């Protein structure tokens, strides 16, 4: 009997050790699997703030990977630096039945410098594990602890971790010293199963059964629709500083007093030189133009991030000596030079991203976690501003481009911080105009003299071409107009007018495969140089609203010369469409028997529309595209 | 005229004198230079590029590799600023590492016609621990402007005397003056290898060298007499072999599209240790010929040794093959077994890094683990199977016989005098269908006795695609139809990889969007997992925008949304071969029903085109019969790689193909 008992015990023990029933992938809820490449089974974050200089995080994340794309969601890594200690690091892999496959200890993780692609040096490091699955689905449990004396940065809680990944359960608990205080803000929680159990000294949230979101074209950014809990301590410690968060004004004041003040000193020699540059100039705007030009011509971008240097600019005198710096250093240097010539400017923090316009939260001040870049704001009369991107050696004066346009940013003055907005580029500003003279020949080819003028954010996408080699310019033209067949380019003349932010390309070429022939007919596409090529994707079941982040306009004026020996048989009908999304018009005017004038105007406005209207927008674009592809038909004279 | 010539000569002379390559002797002329006369598009140029690598003796450390670098770079514009940051990768292993010393660097600018220098200080230098095997020393130059000249020198001391980095003689910017020197004592025999298009020859000299050895001997006297220490110095004299290269005005190496790896065309010299012979000791071989290289690789336990292990799979193998007699069936079974047993961990390598036994047990391994296991299993099953060493596409073509020349291994099995190539690291790779990464020229098959033969890796079997398309033209401008595609070889491998990596409805949604506007139904795929048969996809569709109805006429191109729309070869000239990866052919059979009430007004002319020397062909045939139009199109490229001499023919060929495919069929309303 005793024998039997111990045997039974052994078997039982074995099962417990080797199998985790709750990690069985085959039992997953169908709702969590829909649209998902991976399912977060449990993501538990526990944070203890025991004092001003003591922050401990415990993480445990169990994720079931459903297919090979899901491997991107493994995320078996932890970043650290000399202020962050990593402990109890490990991972366990389970097969689809929840049977343990392998256990990884701290030593199995690789340890590497974690220098971002834009940086020359950073003091950050990463420990990571690459896991090769044998079959799908499988489950990985990943756990670690970190401790640090920097208590300012507390990771925001994002219960839904991205597109195509669902969450079965996510918990987030903070125990903090009430004397230090904590502020939090819930965003986009509506419609999700999230429970708040916080009380004094404790933040506690639990989210369950959040379904995966599928990415869709022209939809709002993931961050602006997914639930997130913003969190920041009221009193904290960072790299030797004690920080007190109040509102943005006091936060800005703190930044100015502790990180910026005193960093604009320059040598007498430099001051003299800079004063010499603006001699005889009175207008602050013109002075700023001269200074920006000087900075662009004399510095370059080099990013080095070490300790407090991650948020504090290197002094202007240092930048002046080495003539390079990161965004903070170069912006602060420009501010220092402007100060010398008597122009006030504000160091301004921003979340830079060309793909999405992301705001700093007006009602949630925090020192870290909301900005990743710095630009310069110069207030001039009538509440107007000049904006400078100091890391670029080539952007025009007062031109931010799509990297930082139209979003809430934090401008910092000696008096304090203030949330203000960067300029928006209107659809009519983001214009591209193609003016061309097309001479159609009877061998299917065409001789074209074209002039393409790009402004606003369209300028932003093209101006770099000025500096490219002839070969690169040629490649650009040929890929842009590749549909016109083999091109022989006779002349390319690119002109960058920085003053008026306008980029002009003049191109003379001959294209071989322009019109198509059929028997005695010649078919000439009416708009090949400026046609709308990209048709937004069709969805069987659109789920997200339609968002057009930036508007644009696309115009064309062609003078079309028809070949001898042909008779004009038909031209496409004139078309005018106007709706909430934009406007389109195309007109053909017969100037003479052998000459046509084509005018096209196309504007799309920015805006957000309910998901039901996506199909309408798509058919608008389709109609435009179809009309751009319409043909002029000629018949051969007998 | 005479006067003019004199001036020219004088100017020239002055320029020659102005070139002083001693460190710090940067001239005003260099600073004033606005662009490189030989290549005005260059954003920067090496004015001087010096590297000397020598094997030197150090007491306590023995022979070490010392590399001295001195570079002077002119930065013409902002795009050239990337050269103001230098990154030096330093190799290390568990015990030893490479180190940088004596770094000196200055930036020179011309200010008010005076040369101003700025010294690199400690705050511009960084040491980064990149990985287990590499550290990196990085520095960025101060005070850099358009027109600046930067200059730096440093030394690298390396304990790894068998690894000499190749001397790159050509760079992505032009080099005005290049000096490369390699020196080694007679005890070290390095083999010299060269590649690239530049004419290079080494100046060879023998110079004298010596080493002073200090030895200490202690003699103890008997009894209470004192202990005496004797210091001896002995001198060892030997010859040093010195090779030097001096080049002027080396053009920049520029990339072109459809080149598989630009490094294949870069001019380089490489020294690889072939043997060492120290006084009073025996000759130790490294490598000299391909045969030697193969022997060295074969002798390594991680290669030859791993091939001989059989115990770990023997039972499973016996069970697997019990019912099989046909050799090809057996091979297929073993191949599938390895593929399903061991998943590739993404690492290349000719050696089994985990060990085959471990890989089998843990079910994951690198290329060496997997394909050496496969070879071993095939041998155990009685086949004549051998590993084949391969250099992957990104590793370049192995021109020099070096161990690093091969970075990958596949398996070959001989059946009826034919060698079948196998690579079990890719789920969808089949017999003689290797993943693209391994398709690079020739591999080397290593026989059991250590001898080796070259094996052509490019596939001889053409990848075939057959497309059947039946189309009906609707009254409202829609077209409706059915399509069926069949693919073999590499086309099938590519299809399986894509199709099986995503959900069917996601795939269909992409398919629907691929041709603009299409609604797909009755979608079916066959043999997406069964590699023994061609993969087949079929579906019905409705689409618009592929025909135009203007007045009484209907216009459409006979291939609708299929075919090549643009010439892939846009540039007029090309220096490097075009690499298609594998030979392929596509056949289209298209049937178009003529709608009631319409007749054919015109059809494109049928045509037939050929590339020279049987490199490829194109057949295009359109015929109408009663109420149906039949279109037959065949395209073929017979070679994997096409030499640049055929480039203009190839470009013209594709132009004609694209032209032909875009011609239109016109139907008109019948009169009655």
What spatial order of strands do you see in the largest sheet of chain B? 5-4-8-2-1-10-13-12
**Helix share bin of chain B:** 10-25%
- The total domain count of chain B is 3
What is the β-strand count of chain B? 36
Structural category of chain A is: alpha+beta
Q: How much strand of chain B?
A: 35-45%
Q: What is the count of distinct domains of chain A?
A: 3
Helix content of chain A: 10-25%
CATH architecture of the largest domain in chain A: Sandwich
Can you tell me the residue ranges of chain B where pLDDT is under 50 for at least 5 consecutive residues?
A: 1-17
In quaternary terms, these chains amount to: heterodimer
User: How large is the radius of gyration of chain B?
Assistant: 33 Å
Largest interface: A-B, 62 and 62 residues
- The end-to-end span of chain B amounts to 85 Å
CATH topology assignment of the largest domain in chain B: Immunoglobulin-like
Protein name (chain A): DUF3857 domain-containing protein
Domain DUF3857 (chain A): 56-211
Domain Transglutaminase-like (chain A): 277-388
Domain DUF3858 (chain A): 541-633
Notable traits:
heterodimer, A: 638 residues, alpha+beta, Immunoglobulin-like, Jelly Rolls, 3 domains, 11 helices, 38 strands, 18% helix, 40% strand, B: 672 residues, C8orf32 fold, 8-stranded mixed sheet, globular, disordered N terminus, DUF3857 (chain A), Transglutaminase-like (chain A)
